[in-house]
Structures are given as C-alpha cells and as structure tokens.
Amino acid sequence: MALKEIHHRVKNNLQVVMSLLDSQADFLQDKVALVSHSGEPAPGAGHGLDPSEALSVESLARIPMNSYIEEVVAYLNDSYSLYQPIRFDVEVEDIELDVTLAVPLGLIINEAITNAFKYAFPDERPGRITVHLKRVEEASYQLMIADDGVGLPANYDPSRSRSLGMTLIHGFSRQLGGKLTISSSSGMCISLVFQEANLNPIYNKASYAY
Amino acid sequence: MPTNSTTLPNPSGQTILIVEDEFAVANNLRSILEKAGYTISGIAFSVDEALEMNKQKRPDLVLLDIHLKGAQTGIDLAHLLTKDDIPFVYVSANTNASILEEVKTTEPYGFLVKPFPGKRCSGSFRDCTLPF
Q: φ, ψ for residue A115 (rounded to 5)?
C-alpha cells in the first residue's frame, strides 16, 4: 500500500475518532448534572473508539469478525460491572469483512450493548445479551443484538429517539446501506441486514480517494 | 483574542446540507452547526442522495467531502452545485496536489482540512457564509 494512502486513512480515521469524542463530550455536557448527581461513572468516550482496535490488524483490508466481535464484547463486559450476572451469547459465523464495514458494525454493537447495560436490567435483574452475525445469502449478512431485559417503554419510538446511541445506530446503519429493525417484545432486539456489495470499497478507488 | 460567538452575525435561517460518507463525522458536524444556529437540511452519503435532498429543500450552503459513497465524487457534485448557484465548502482529508488543482477549478467558498478539531469549524463556516 502506498504511504500516502496510509496517510489518508490515518487522517480520516482520526477525524472519525475526534468526531465521536466531540459528540460524546456534547452529550456529557447535556447530562452532566444527572451523571454527577447519580454518582454513576461517566460512560467513557473511549468505548466508541474500541473498534479502532481492528485497525491494528496487519492486513487492513479484511477483518475476521468472530475474533473482532468477541473482543468488542469482552471489552464492554469488563467496562460495565453490574451487580447481577449478565450472560453473553455470542455466535459469529466464520465471516471476514472489509474494514469499512467492520468499524461501523463494531460501533453499532458498542452502542447496542452499552444501551442494554444501562437500561435493560434495572433493579439488579439478571439477564442475557445475544450477539449474532450470520450469512443470510451470498454476501448478505444479518447482525442481531438482543437482550431479555425490560424492553422499551410502551410510548418510546426508537426511530424518533434523539439519544446519541440511537442516533449513531441509525446513522451507521444508513452508512452501511442496511435495513435496520428495532423491536421490543421480551427485551429489545436490534437487527441489521446488510450487503457487502452495497458498500463501495472506499479505499480501493485510485484517483479520488487520496 | 478569544472569539465571542455572540458578536458574530446570527446564522439563523441559513440551511446547510452535509455530504459525507462517514456518519460519525457528519453527525458531529451537524451538532456543531446546529449549536451555532444553522439548520441542517440533511446528511447525504452520496451525490445521488445529495441531489435528492436538494430537491426537497434547497440549502444555502453545502459542505462536501471529496470521497463519497458510490462512483461520483464531491468534485462531480461541486460542478452540479455551481450550475444551481449553491455555494459549497469542501471538508476533506485530501491533500493530493492533482486533486487540489481540480478542487480549485470548482471555485469553492472554502476548504476545511481533516482532521479538524470540533470547535474550530463553526467559525470558518460562518466566515464562509458572510457573502450572503
């Protein structure tokens, strides 16, 4: 890979990281009274950066999704220590994806699991969080993050939510050109069906990308 | 001298379209600009989406990345915006000399180089919009 291509990627990724930090800082500012009052530790902006671990993989092009998702889940599990046991059920098929898909997918998983930790299991309710990634057709995949918690409040419309987490989940789904479904019956279920072909290989274009 | 934002012209009523294929970046730009008083008409990931959104609501300014989703680039969009008399500012990590030459020929209102710190940009966007 040409050095200037790497240079360009670094700058672009740095911008993504800085944007997430800035958005998180905004959000924390809005919530600052609430957070300091409850004594709850502020959710670390670093969570959003977790998927950038993928960028340290030697080959930048393809990310093995099973080990990547395992890492994201382990990281989040370590970061949030709830009193009650929360079990994880992670099932990821043997799938490799382009880094341009893997990073937004990691960020969606990050937001969905963080959301579950914060809201799904009140009153020390024990629970389970399921993360699946499977191939539904050739080059078509489904990501699903589900929990058996309390689910969404009856009057809550996730497509109208202005929370940072929901905004990011919807936005990254659009970026991936995927079909997002959020349902709540017994717990909450977030499903995203996406095609690899729908995403242009951002860094493969010779002339304009750099 | 620190800039006092309250003494700058009020941008309210001005509408901006963001054309950017990284949602995290676009969303951050949106919140910065909304805080500065602008209205965001949409976030487009591709040239086609941008044109569709401009049909729904004509923006006063377009912020555009050079590399976008799909085959067409921000430079392609710039030519179409010029035809429609809609001013634009590039927001890109692109510093390749030949592309910058091409960028210049589109006569943008400005060029913001990524990575930019969040607080810096609302000022320069405001400067960009002063000619209106």
A: -60, -45
Give the pLDDT score at A60: 58
Report the residue of B19, B20, B21, B22 to disrupt the A interface, i.e. the one with the largest count of A CBs within 10 Å.
B22
| CB within 8 Å of A177: residues ≥ 6 apart | A194, A195, A198, A199, B69
A30 interface with B at CB cutoff 8 Å? no
The residues with which A190 forms a beta bridge, in sequence order, are: A145, A182
Model pLDDT, residue B119:
58
- Whether B47 and B30 have beta carbons less than 8 Å apart is answered as no
* B31, amino acid identity: S
Q: Which residue has the higher pLDDT, A21 or B82?
A: B82
**Confidence at residue A93, expressed as pLDDT on a 0 to 100 scale:** 97
**Nearest one of B103, B86, B85, B105 to B94, comparing CA atoms:** B103
Q: Do A15 and B99 touch (CB under 8 A)?
A: no
> Which residue of chain B comes nearest to A175, CA vs CA?
B23
**Weakly modelled stretches of chain A, pLDDT under 50:** 32-59, 200-210
A187, A150 contact by CB (below 8 A): yes
* Reported pTM: 0.79
Residues from chain A contacting residue B23 (CB–CB below 8 Å):
104, 168, 171-172, 174-175
